[in-house]
Write a structure and sequence with these properties.
The protein is an alpha+beta fold. The protein is built from 12 helices and 36 strands. Strands 4-3-2-1-6-7-8-9-5 form a 9-stranded antiparallel sheet. A 9-stranded antiparallel sheet has the order 13-12-11-10-15-16-17-18-14. A hairpin with a 3-residue loop joins strand 12 and strand 13 (217-218). It is extended.
């Protein structure tokens, strides 16, 4: 190929590339726009509509688009417009299509509900001197369409019934119902006033609130966050009155108030929402924005979330600690003392005996401490603890990684009640405040070594670790072997198939089996518990033939059955129901 041919081919490639680019990025969008606009009543785009006016008997609704892209209502009141509702209506109108022309020059417009029309819609469009106008009349006989005509034209047509519904919407639909515009993330101060009492709070960092007046106290960040959420998302249920002659009927002559602050120094600004009386019948509360005359009905849960007292606002966490950093705790109660330490991802008991701990039981106790909440406050100073608690009944010391000293929770009984329930005194040693908590905490945190120790009968294993199982019932052995992930077969007394789901349930039952009590630590009285001649013996083996464990089942006495494992002497009592499937296995696992 000579150089001339190469130049020609290159020119052809460039031309094709240029055409592809022009067609894809210039012509295609234009074709798509033209196709989308085909059949529309007007040649305009929703984004170009700058004003919407709906006139009907005795009422005019007028909205104007603002620079932010939202809408401002100018009639019947001056207010923020509802952007979503107005955009929906404008889009519906700007893309409106005619169903069909009914009469090019009807003698009587009244026959179509157009003399006078039910409503007149005007769209002010960017770049047009005159608005586009649509007169909307009655519904067609089918109800699927409404009669309409363009302003300045005589022809009557039918258009979608949606136009009729949109033009009949009440003015409130086009009005922004946000009770208070608020960016929760920027709020760094809150003033509350109820019944003449003022409470002031500041956020030193997001989510970390403190009460500065009266106070100082740590504040409940979750409660404040929830209240600010309610304000931010609250929508007016009803615009009650734009300028009532009296605020007394709404309880707004002596209102409660919530003032939110944002910004710093010269840029610090505030907004205040005033709260009147609750209307139980309407399930709402009357509110108004400070500096504005209108009264709104807000959802009742906004008033419910309003923190009305210092006690409600105070931080109710009794012991603040990081659960994931806790590595040791000591527990003292009337039931005795026990020390537990973290062992990797698990826990172990180090005193009074060295035992494996039940991670579930230990975590439940630590979570009970973490989730303990005050139901009342008795005193603020640590020195006042002795007035309310002479001697602790329960003491929990928790050490965290890197901490030299533990956080010590002390609890004791109280004669007081809260919410009709008995209460207990609680405090962190060396700190205030002294609090009341649910008396149930005394029981929940009084745990013994037995309560916290691991109660598994078999050592930890996975289902995939089990290769073979041997069940001996009345001296007759049944040997099962796993092939694949969950397929089992019978090897003895004769080869055959086995029900895989039954065998899997058997193995899982042994894995999860827990004892309720140790009835004989040394196992000396085996005949008493029927374990000199077990009724059932179950062994699990690994692939290399090593024994995972063997369970011997003895006598049943009502809700309890006595068992032991071959590896140790102790005799345990277990819940009889946990062994029901195991006892039926010798006759049910065969295929």
């Amino acid at each position: 190929m000579n150089w001339k041919t190469g130049v020609v081919l290159a020119a052809v490639v460039l031309a094709l590339g240029g055409y592809f680019y022009y067609d894809t990025y210039r012509l295609a969008p234009a074709r798509e726009k033209a196709e989308a606009s085909k059949g529309r009543l007007w040649s305009l785009e929703p984004k170009d509509v700058e004003g919407l006016t709906i006139r009907r008997q005795g009422e005019t609704i007028r909205l104007h688009r603002v620079e932010s892209g939202g809408w401002e209502m100018r009639d019947p009141v001056k207010a923020r417009g509802d952007r979503v509702a107005t955009d929906d209506v404008v889009t519906s109108l700007a893309t409106l299509r005619m169903d069909r022309e009914i009469n090019p020059n009807p003698p009587k417009l009244g026959d179509f509900g157009l003399d006078p029309p039910a409503s007149e819609i005007r769209l002010d469009v960017k770049g047009r001197k005159e608005p586009v106008v649509l007169m909307v009349g009655a519904k067609s006989p089918t109800g699927a369409w409404v009669y309409a005509k363009e302003g300045g034209k005589s022809a009557v047509m039918t258009v979608s019934e949606v136009v009729g519904r949109d033009s009949a919407r009440p003015a409130a639909d086009f009005r922004d119902k946000t009770v208070m515009t608020l960016d929760k993330k920027s709020v760094n101060g809150l003033d509350l006033e109820v019944g003449g009492d003022r409470i002031s709070l500041v956020a030193d960092e997001p989510g970390k609130w403190r009460i500065v007046k009266p106070g100082p106290y740590h504040a409940d960040g979750d409660l404040i966050s929830s209240f600010l959420d309610k304000i931010e998302t609250a929508k007016a249920k009803e615009f009650v009155s734009e300028s009532p002659p009296s605020l007394t009927p709404y309880g707004l002559d002596h209102p409660a108030s919530a003032t939110v602050w944002s910004g710093k120094d010269k840029d610090r600004v505030s907004k205040t929402l005033l709260f009147g009386r609750a209307d139980l019948d309407k399930k709402g509360v009357y509110v108004m924005r400070a500096g504005e005359p209108g009264v709104m009905l807000a959802p009742e849960d906004l008033w419910t979330a309003f923190p009305k007292t210092v006690a409600a606002l105070r931080d109710k966490v009794v012991v603040a600690y990081a659960y994931d950093k806790a590595n040791r705790f000591e527990l003292q109660s009337p039931k005795g003392s026990v020390t537990v330490e973290r062992d990797g991802t698990n826990w172990k008991i180090t005193a009074p005996d060295a035992l494996k701990a039940d991670s579930g039981a230990v975590n439940a106790l630590l979570w009970s401490v973490r989730d303990l909440r005050a139901s009342g406050f008795l005193a603020d100073a640590a020195a006042d603890l002795g007035r309310f608690l002479k001697k602790p009944e329960v003491t929990v010391k928790i050490w965290e990684e890197g901490a030299k000293e533990p956080k010590t929770l002390v609890l004791g009984p109280s004669a007081e009640t809260r919410g009709g329930k008995p209460a207990a005194v609680a405090a962190v040693e060396g700190q205030g405040p002294v609090m009341l908590v649910d008396a149930k905490a005394l029981q929940d945190l009084s745990k013994t070594e037995t309560d916290l120790r691991d109660r598994s009968l078999f050592p930890a294993f996975e289902l995939s670790d089990v290769k073979r199982a041997r069940l001996t019932d009345a001296g007759k052995p049944l040997v099962l072997e796993r092939s694949g992930e969950s397929d089992w077969k019978v090897l003895e007394p004769s080869r055959g198939s086995a029900k895989g789901d039954k065998v899997t349930n058997l193995v899982l039952g042994l894995k999860s089996l827990r004892w309720k009590d140790i009835v004989s630590p040394t196992g000396d009285d085996a005949p008493r518990y029927g374990l000199d001649h077990p009724t059932l013996e179950v062994s699990l083996y690994k692939a290399d033939g090593g024994e995972l464990g063997t369970l011997l089942v003895g006598k049943q006495e009502g809700a309890l059955t006595y068992v032991r494992v071959k590896a140790g002497p102790a005799i345990y009592a277990v819940d009889s129901q946990l062994l029901s499937d195991l006892k039926k296995a010798p006759t049910e696992v065969r295929g």
